[in-house]
């Protein structure tokens, strides 16, 4: 029993050194650590390694428990003191450092502002069960015009100043021969011939809208169809501050049984509130597109003035955002669908214009120039301007 | 289409507010692009009454007038007009007012006499050419009243954006019809001042190709190009200036007043959307006015003074010997109405829309007439247009009608369209009652036959709406007049689409996000530009020779982007683009379209930081190599990177080259850095889904091997040999450093490799590592003649 008491005294003596730890400096603290817990000569280590195994069963249990508990307390106390010392050292070091000096940066990349708008639009429609579809930029007259109910020689074509490719049209030679033998053709004969030729694809062109992808989607799969179609389109427009011959468009198409004008309004109103903000007011105006009927334009209340009228909305309080309409029955039939059974709606808008509007960009050419000082403004978070020549 | 607010008021018999019209027309599908106030400079002009006129003491031709301008004190005004008369009222411009011509009036002395303002002539107010004297105003209005309140000239021009399906809105009557519906009122044609009560009655209908009217042979020899031809012969007219009201109507919508006869035809076109033409009967050979096909190579001098060469598929108007007009496009000088004209043939015909369009395109012109014929005029409305025009001519130019005919070889009825109310509900999502549907259709001029035993309505559509040909066209009109905003907007339950995203689109997103994470900015460049390959595709009708080709590769566009940045003194450029490349050679002549990614790097590898002296190292080949490896892994996971003569290429599983990376030859300005570029074609194949491999829990050992490599020994080969000789415990081999010196000899180098070892299930023993290293050293020495470098 005397032995047992000695052992308790030894542990108590070690424990007594605990409160002093909080006052030791770095080297003294480490010396004390070696003295108490060092792997080779530490007093407590020694105790645990050599004394404890020699004790009888009962004592071994109680003394052992106390010794292990003490070791935990000591380790915690050393760790706390080390942390406090390190913190104090950091604070001392920081007093000598100018923390207003710039931090070390990495290059941040960014997505093009038009792509950002496209992705945001796609994401909203994804939430409404739409998938993304795409199609070729080089198209035939049939896909770009004929299937979409553009009559040959119709003024509606004036809205689509088209760039054609210098590739011989397979049917063209045959048509010319037919012309020569039949003499002068009557208007209806010409219409028939052009329609026939368009059906046989017709000339190659750069698509003037993303709508040919509607036709490809409808030909490919039966309804229900819900897709959004982003892509680049081409018009023979001179490149200036507000027009580009190549620009981005995003189109949407819904075809199923029971789709009505109410679904068109509901879906697009929902989109407008998601994209432009919950307080956005929309209005639908009648319009004209050959491939939809009824056709509509959707305006949203001007985001700058809130509808009161300002230069951004030319004083009207409204901004034109998209064209839409019920898919024309002729288009459905051209794609091989039963237009009595299936109905649908389509819409299209210009992410480039929307991006210009949203970011306050006044010259469309900036979108195409690859100027790093422009593009870096659209990184996340917005990057600093690219460095000027420095050497 | 320019519309005059005042002209519309004539139809609707009510005062109209331009801003209210803008709202109403927008919601009816005819948005107004602009509202232009007319005579904006006249709002300061008031009515002045001349109280007294006295001779000017120092000038014979000048008078001194005392003018009451409503402000109490009489004004001294020096006036040179011969017609100034005491007691009469004239337009008066006070001191400080700026006239439409730009002159601002000042208080000044004229030959010693004070003049405080000006009494104005019509020309000084921009109201006409008359300058014989000041404009006398026969009005009861008090002096000081605004001139615009008295003269019926205050007006606004509304520029209406008319869609191609609505030719009826190219005349004021059509716009008035829409507005009458909107106001819930009626409309009728404005009165023509001075029109005789007995005008042109019924036109003589002739169902043949030709007939004679008033001694003139008229008709159509080309009924496919000119479907119907009406002609009125009027004799004894006096051609002269139009009355003010007529000239003002035309000028209000931007048309020039020419003379009373030409103005009458233009007025009818702008009111009823029927282009018309008046010929000088005396100048007609034959005399005849007949529509026929042009002879190939025939020429005509049109009214704009240009000589036009015609082709055989154009319809022309001809007299017995020559062409006197291009059908539906423009008349000719040779039969133009002039001041000497006394007898007229007035033509109102209907030309085929698509032939008119092709003719005017072939001739490189577009006229008010061709614009209307292309879109379709009212085939059944020709006699009404003739009656309106005759009334105008008789009222403004006098004369008498000799005869009038209507040559219509193949008369037709306006089309009948059947409408199912169930179809209306199916498409519009709202069950509209039949009486409402009828009301809407009647408002646009349809006649509706509703037989209760039939589920359909029989609808006879009006001639002025050539866009209404099928049921869906009527449904659009029903929705339009019901008001798009009056349909509900509640989202219905729906079936999600059957299609999923295309794999290629998913790859595009992966590539884009992956390269942004590498610190690159996405660019969007033009896919039109100069030819960049022998297989490049040419445009048939390019905007310019600079934009005549479709690009095959994206990298040249990005290099142009680098040059743009350099030209703006921007040194650090990191760009990529995902887009289409085009080339000849697909099946059926279809061009091959590939989706590609290109990237360029130049400038500092990281933003310069002060801890490194404000300069970071520039991008080099090794940055390019790793970026290329990342791009290839993103774009086509099955492809591998190989060396080639000038850089690296990527080959897909079939060995086809799908990408390359190299230092570009673009010469940088002195302050810029070298440029590196890459391009990879995207594959629609998605990478295999990620499978987790267990994270090692056993300890790692490593050894550095500093190997002396002789000429032509590639590091990749060394790594391969080390790995295979080292055995299964080798986890990885990395290159740590490379050292070259003259001491080592030319093309020789010391490369330090770090080999890591690990046993998956236990702590690895030093002896095992030693044995593995020994095997590796033996292998590289035997196979690659590489030895450990001993310091």
Biggest sheet of chain B: strands side by side, in what order? Answer: 27-31-32-36-35-34-33
First-residue to last-residue Cα separation of chain B: 91 Å
Number of strands of chain A: 9
What is the gyration radius of chain B calculated from CA atoms?
42 Å
Kindly state the mean pLDDT of chain B as a whole number?
91
Question: Main beta sheet of chain A: strand number and arrangement?
Answer: 7 strands, mixed
What would you call the shape of chain A? elongated
Number of strands of chain B: 40
Poorly predicted tracts of residues of chain A: 171-182, 385-391
Helix share, percent of chain B = 10-25%
Helix share of residues of chain A?
A: 40-55%
Describe this structure in words.
- The complex is a heterodimer of chains A (391) and B (791).
- Chain A is 41% helix and 17% strand.
- Chain A has 391 residues and is of the alpha+beta class.
- The model of chain A is unreliable at 171-182 and 385-391 (pLDDT under 50).
- Chain B is α+β, with helices and mostly antiparallel strands.
- Chain B is built from 17 helices and 40 strands.
- Chains A and B meet through strand 1, helix 8, strand 4, strand 5 and helix 10 of A and helix 2, helix 7, helix 10, helix 12 and helix 13 of B.
Question: What does the secondary structure layout of this molecule look like, with pairings?
Answer:
The complex is a heterodimer of chains A (391) and B (791).
Chain A: H1 2-16, H2 26-37, H3 43-51, H4 57-95, H5 113-126, E1 131-132, E2 138-140, H6 141-144, H7 172-182, H8 187-199, E3 204-206, H9 212-220, E4 225-234, E5 246-257, H10 261-276, E6 282-289, E7 292-301, E8 318-327, H11 329-334, E9 342-349, H12 351-359, H13 372-375
Parallel strand pairs in A: 1-4
Antiparallel strand pairs in A: 2-3, 4-5, 5-9, 6-7, 7-8, 8-9
Chain B: E1 2-4, H1 5-12, H2 18-27, E2 32-37, E3 46-56, E4 59-68, E5 75-79, E6 89-93, E7 108-110, E8 113-115, E9 118-119, H3 147-150, E10 156-160, H4 172-183, E11 204-206, E12 210-213, E13 216-220, E14 226-235, H5 244-252, H6 260-272, E15 277-280, E16 288-293, E17 299-301, E18 307-309, E19 315-318, E20 323-326, E21 330-331, E22 344-351, H7 353-362, H8 368-375, H9 382-397, E23 400-407, E24 416-420, H10 421-428, H11 434-443, E25 447-450, E26 456-460, H12 471-482, H13 503-517, E27 521-522, E28 528-529, E29 537-538, E30 549-550, H14 555-567, E31 573-583, E32 592-602, H15 621-635, E33 640-644, E34 647-651, E35 657-663, E36 675-681, E37 701-709, H16 715-726, E38 730-739, E39 749-757, H17 766-784, E40 787-788
Parallel strand pairs in B: 11-23, 13-16, 27-31
Antiparallel strand pairs in B: 1-10, 2-10, 3-4, 3-6, 4-5, 6-9, 7-8, 12-13, 14-22, 14-23, 15-22, 16-19, 17-18, 19-20, 20-21, 24-26, 25-26, 28-30, 29-30, 31-32, 32-36, 33-34, 34-35, 35-36, 37-39, 37-40, 38-39
